[in-house]
Structures are given as C-alpha cells and as structure tokens.
Amino acid sequence: QQALEQARAAGRKDQEARAALQLAGIHIGRMEEAKAEPLIDRALELAEHSGSIVARASAASSKGALLRVQGNSEAAAGWYTKALELFREAASMSEIAWTSRQLGVLAWEAGDSEKAEKLLRESIRLLAPMRERGTLYVWPRAYRCCRGKQYVLEAALHPPEGDFELVYAVDGFRIYATP
C-alpha cells in the first residue's frame, strides 16, 4: 500500500500500476477477488496512460489471473492472449513463457489438447535456455470461492509433493498428472 501511495505522489503511472498489481496479486492469493478487482482495473487504466508495454501486459495478465480465479476461463484466456501479444512486443521471454503456460493450462482444462500442447511446448522451449526441462506436472485444485466446487488445473515445471504418473510424452515433452 505504501509503494502505491509513493508512486501516486511521484506521478509515476507505471510504478503506480506495478504497485497496484502487486497488491492485487496478494489479494488474489488470499482469494479476496473483490479487493483485487478495483486495483487491477486501476492498473489497466494507469498502464494505458503510462506508455509502458510491459505495464500494459502485466495488467492484462493480472486481469486474466483474476478472471481465472473467478471461474471465467474464457475471459481469462482473452486477457492472457492480450498479455502474450504485448509481452512478445516487449520481447520479455520469461513472461512470454509464463503466459504461454497459463494459456496452455486453460486450453488443457477446456479439452483442447492440441492447442495446449502447442502453447506448453512454446513455454518449455523458451524456458530451456533458462535451464528448465521439457516436463510439466499438472493436478486439480479446488478454489475456496464457489464453495470448493470450482476446480482448476494447476501446473508446475518441477515435481510438487505427491504421486504423479506420465500421461503424455512426445519428442522429449512430458506431462505428468496425479492418478
């Protein structure tokens, strides 16, 4: 909150947007969507006026994350797609990889395995120079919102705790899932 106020006082719209997104991310992590939403909307507005491509991309990505938590996967994919285009324009490789992974997981959840594979391969291809492997671990998780009835597919590049089995393997690309 303090960083948000300092950026606002300094007239730095890009830094204010960044601080708002960081605070919104904390609220999303706590499943406090109502507190996150106005911060993200403000960050989207600030990012547009800041002239920063990365600020616009980050705000779009955060909007996608919020919509995903709220259970609106289709709208989330739209915002993640916008973020991906902007991150590509900014040549931000780690963010391109992360956003491609998010879109890949959403495609997987929607049953579009062909699109999911393409996006997840792109993510892994970009992460490989950063010493990441061609492996993805996925598992379902219930969100507190929706009384635990909303499930999403979580994903990680390194094995989390628990049992996983190989469910897909092609050309060194592997997906492991919980049994």
Write structural notes for this entry:
The protein is built from seven helices and four strands, in the order H-H-H-H-H-H-H-E-E-E-E. By secondary structure, the protein is an alpha+beta fold. It has a four-stranded mixed beta sheet. It is elongated, with a radius of gyration of 17 Å. The N and C termini lie far apart (42 Å). Residues 144-150 have low confidence and may be disordered.
Question: Care to give the gist of this entry?
Answer:
By secondary structure, this protein is an alpha+beta fold. It is built from 7 helices and 4 strands.
Structural class: alpha+beta
- Order of strands across the main sheet: 2-1-4-3
Helices, by number, come to 7
- Proportion in β-strands: 15-25%
Taking the sheet with the most strands, its summary is: 4 strands, mixed
Question: Regarding quaternary structure, how should these chains be classified?
Answer: single chain
Distance between the termini: 42 Å
Mean pLDDT: 81
H-E string: HHHHHHHEEEE
Topology, number of strands: 4
Question: Measured on Cα atoms, how large is the radius of gyration?
Answer: 17 Å
